[in-house]
Amino acid sequence: MTHINSKLVHLGRNSARQSLAVNPPLVRASTTVFPTLAAFKSSYQGVSFETPRYGRSGTSTAFELQTAMASICNTQSCIATSCGLSACAAVLSAYAEPGSHLLIQKEVYGPTRAVAENELRRIKADIEYFDSADELPHLIKPQTSLIFLEVPTSLSMKMLDIRAVTTIAQKHKIPVACDSTWGTPYFFDAHDLGINISIHAATKYINGHSDILLGLITGTYEDLAKTRHWCERFGSHAAPDACWMTLRGLRTLSVRMERHQENALHVASYLQVQPQIKNVLFPALASDPGHQLWQQQFSGAAGPFSIELQPCSESAYEKFFDSLNLFALGTSWGGFESLVMPAIAHHLRSKQTLADEGRMVRLHIGLEDKDELCADLHQALALLG
Ligand SMILES: *Cc1c(COP(=O)(O)O)cnc(C)c1O
C-alpha cells in the first residue's frame, strides 16, 4: 500500500482486529498494568515508542494514530501532542538553550512567535527572523541550532523556496522544522523537500470537524529524538480521545481537501475581480507572487486565504462581517465550515509587511455550495459600497 488515499483509510486500525470492529478501540488509561514483573521491566527497557508504559506517553489509541501518520508522511515516527501550538513549542524549546541561535521565518503563526519572543528569549536563546532563503547564508552562525518555517505563513500567505532552505541547512548540518498545517500531508510532502521535523495542527484539517485540538510532529527517529525527550519530560502528549477523533477525521481527509480546494479556488477567483477588493493573498492564484513556488512544492491548495479590502470605514467593515450568513466569525480553520475573521497584520505578525490602508480579512472556505458562498460574500461586499 503506497498511495496516500489507501493509507488514510487503512492505517491505524490494527488494534480493531480483536473486537471485530472497523475502527480501533478508544483506550483510556492513566495506569498501564503488566502481567509479570518481567513484562514491567522490559517495557522500561524497550526501545519501542509504541509500547504502553504509562498513560502520559500514550495508549494504543495514540500509537495507532502515530504509526499511521508516520507512514502517511513517508517517514519513521510521529509524536501526538495536546494541540498544534504545543507541538510548535516543543520543537522550538527542544533546540533552545542559553546562547543557541534559532532562525525563524518572519510572519509565522502569532502564538508560535510568542513562544520564541517570551519563553525562548527568557532562557537567553538568540532569536532571529528571516524572509527568504537568500538571507540564510548571512544569518547562519556556528551556534544556529534550528531553522523554523511555516509555509505558507498564516494570514500573509507567503511562500518560501523550501528546497533552497533545506539545501543550505544540510550544508551547515542544521535541522529544519516546518509548520505544515496548511498543506496537510495530502497536499504537502514536507520530508521529500528535505524538512527534518514537520508539524501539523491536526486541530485543523486532519481532524477536520472543529471539535478537538491535537498536534502531530513527524520525522525520523533520529530527527525527533530531542523533541520526543522534551515532550516526555514536560508531559505534552495528546489524550486518547483526541487521538481517536483524529483517526476518524483522517479517513476522509482526501475527499475533504479536494472539495476545500475546489471551493477555495472558485471563491478566490470570484473575489479577485470584485471592485471592493484590492488584493487576494492566495498562492494558488496565478497572479500571486508565490504561485510558482506553490506549484513546485504543493500538490494542491487548502481553504484558508486572506483578502485585502479597498479602503473603507470601520462601520462598513463591521457591517461586512455582521451580514455574512454562511461564514461564521471565529478564529481557526480546517473544519467543514466556512469562517471569517479580521486579520490585523501588525497585531498578529512578526513584522508588518502588508499595506495597512486596506483592511484585511481571513477567510476559510468550507464544504458548502461554492456559488452560495460567493452569493453570501456578494451581499456583504455590497455593504462596503
Ligand atoms: C492553528 C494553528 C496552530 C495551532 O494549533 P492549535 O491546535 O490551535 O494549538 C499552529 N500553526 C498553525 C499554522 C495554525 O494554523
Helix content: 25-40%
Present as ligands are: pyridoxal-5'-phosphate
Instruction: Work out the strand percent.
Output: 15-25%
Overall structural class, as computed from helix and strand content, comes to alpha/beta
CATH class call of the largest domain: Alpha Beta
How is the largest sheet built, in terms of strand order? 1-7-6-5-4-2-3
- The name of the CATH topology of the largest domain is Aspartate Aminotransferase, domain 2
Termini gap: 54 Å
Please give a handful of descriptors for the protein shown.
single chain; about 375 residues; alpha/beta; Aspartate Aminotransferase, domain 2; Aspartate Aminotransferase, domain 1; seven-stranded mixed β-sheet; binds pyridoxal-5'-phosphate; pyridoxal phosphate binding; Cys_b_lyase_bac; transferase activity; lyase
Could you please describe the fold and organization of this structure?
The chain has helices spanning 4-10, 37-45, 60-72, 84-94, 110-122, 136-139, 162-171, 184-187, 221-234, 240-250, 253-272, 291-297, 314-323, 345-348, 370-382; strands at residues 77-81, 101-105, 126-130, 144-150, 176-179, 197-201, 215-219, 277-281, 304-309, 328-329, 339-342, 360-364. It is of the alpha/beta class and 385 residues long. It folds into two domains: 4-250, Aspartate Aminotransferase, domain 2 (3-Layer(aba) Sandwich); 253-384, Alpha-Beta Complex (Aspartate Aminotransferase, domain 1), CATH 3.90.1150. The strands form two sheets. It has a seven-stranded mixed sheet, sandwiched between helices. A five-stranded mixed sheet has the order 8-9-12-11-10, covered by helices on one side. The longest helix has 20 residues, at 253-272. The protein is globular. 47% of the residues are buried. Pyridoxal-5'-phosphate binds at residues 83-85, 88, 109, 150, 154, 179, 181, 201, 203-204, 213, 215, 332.
